[in-house]
Amino acid sequence: MPLLEFNKVSKNFGSIEALRDVSFGIDEGEMVFVTGPSGAGKTTLLKLLIREIRPSAGEIVFDGKSVGKLKRRDIPKLRQKIGVVFQDFKLLPEKTVSENCDIALAISKTPKIEWAARVEHVLDLVGLSERSELFPSQLAGGEIQRAALARALVVNPSIIFADEPTGNLDWETAEEVIKLLKKIHEEGKTVIVTTHHKKIIKEFKARILELRKGEVEKDTKE
Amino acid sequence: MKLHLKTSFDNIRRAPFQAMAAILVLAVTFFVSTLIAISVFSSHQLLNYFETRPQIIAFLTDDANQEQINELMGRLKSDPRVANLRLISKEEALAIYKEATSDNPLLGELVSPSIFPASIEFSPSDLDQAQEMIELMQDELIVDDIGFTANVGGSAAVGDVIERLRTITYYVRVAGAIAIGVLAVTSFLVLMVVIGMRISMKRDEIESLSLIGATPWFIRAPLVLEAIHYSVMGVVIGWLMASVIVMYASPGIFSYFGDIPILPKASSEFFLMLGAILAGELVIGVFIAIFGSLFSLSRTLKLR
């Protein structure tokens, strides 16, 4: 049984069809690039997965549970299981990098005794140990991306969903971020990366799910 | 909790003028509340003083024996209409007389205990029952005569004074309740507005927290704690200001009212009264803060 499954999912925003009959499954430990031009529906996938929005039709099943049928009080638990790297980072600007990680740990009710070790480990992993006491506004573009990744990773989620993590980065920094995601995948994590960066898809071997005008145009798993 | 406390203190530090406005409004509320609470206490003390002042004195016959006296005392003790019951022996009556004539010792030396009758003194718990109690005591075999203290002009005059005091006390309480009510509503609204502004300023941050799995309570906790900080600071400042004024004025109040214990004279009791007011105000302040902030959160924060 796949860890994540989209069954004939459609999403309309008024008269605009963002997704139409999208179906795919992602197994535990897989790495998937979700690609397609702007407006293809990549970010809508993420919003549906974390129940920021509900599908107009179809069903999303994550970890054996229907996301659309979750009660309001269960949504935080769902979101705690998914480590999301948002396109606009969504780091707390008034908290340092390590405090941002602490907050994720507090939200997931991780015992406080584990916090320091976990934060140290993920910051070391993403190469931000030296920047832990800086605020997001004091970091460079690639560093912010890595800080957001550290916050997503620190709670040890079932799945990592990185939405356009290379969007505004130069090639070298983008390559570094993807290498990092690859490394996380090699450690056994399920990783979904949305990108429209063709060079990344060519260089890094992974399953490709291509969306176009809200429909799955290509899935290399099939 | 430590994380939420830190966030709430950071919020206060980053918008000090909003914090000052909220704290000052709350300080004024609790300054007035403290003064009103003390006034209500004093008016109650004043009323209580006059209500318990009128004493019925039953002078006992010389042949009344101890058994009869004990039996009458026992009945009076179990009567709910009787307060401040006291037996004055002949010797005690002489001592009282000597103390009253201490400026002329010769008067004290000329008398012996035998000329003073023993007496039973008490106050009616309700002044309206004074006449009934007097008539009841007159029927007692060992009671020779009945007296009603005339310190404040007899029962009619006492009743008049007490009635006036009751009216004053009632108006102090009503006016105090209205003033506190208006100020409490103002404080509630100010806290609501300040927390509402805070939510508007932090909308993006709140959305981020929600999207990474924060529960509604996790998001609300720092904002509720922030309102509680404002309230506690307002209470302490308001109470401190009012307490200093009352302490400064207390020597004048004591000398003006003389024997009437309008404020506690012992330091420990005085500070116990102020402590009790502070504790009560802290409870009310925290209550206003919790409900003000939660009301504001429910109106302005819709989590997805």
Automatic annotation (TrEMBL), chain A:
Keywords: ATP-binding, Nucleotide-binding. GO terms for molecular function: ATP binding; ATP hydrolysis activity; transmembrane transporter activity. Residues 4-222 form the ABC transporter domain. One of its GO terms (cellular component) is plasma membrane. SMART domains: AAA. The keyword Cell wall biogenesis/degradation does not apply. It holds the Pfam family ABC_tran. InterPro entries: AAA+_ATPase (IPR003593), ABC_transporter-like_ATP-bd (IPR003439), ABC_transporter-like_CS (IPR017871), ABC_transpr_LolD-like (IPR015854), P-loop_NTPase (IPR027417). Belongs to the ABC transporter superfamily. This is ABC transporter domain-containing protein.
UniProtKB/TrEMBL annotation, chain B:
It is found in: Cell membrane. Keywords: Cell cycle, Cell division, Cell membrane, Membrane, Transmembrane, Transmembrane helix. Residues 55-140 form the FtsX extracellular domain. GO terms for biological process: cell division. The keyword Phosphoprotein does not apply. It is a multi-pass membrane protein. Residues 178-299 form the ABC3 transporter permease C-terminal domain. GO terms for cellular component: plasma membrane. Belongs to the ABC-4 integral membrane protein family. FtsX subfamily. This is Cell division protein FtsX.
